[in-house]
Amino acid sequence: MGANLSVHRRNRSWPESLKREIVAAKLEPGASVAAVARHYEVNANQVFAWRRRFGAAGLDIMTPTLVPVVLTGEVPSLAPPITPDDRIEIELTGGYRLCVGGDASAATLRRVLGVLERR
Question: Name one GO molecular function term (predicted).
Answer without folding.
Answer: sequence-specific DNA binding
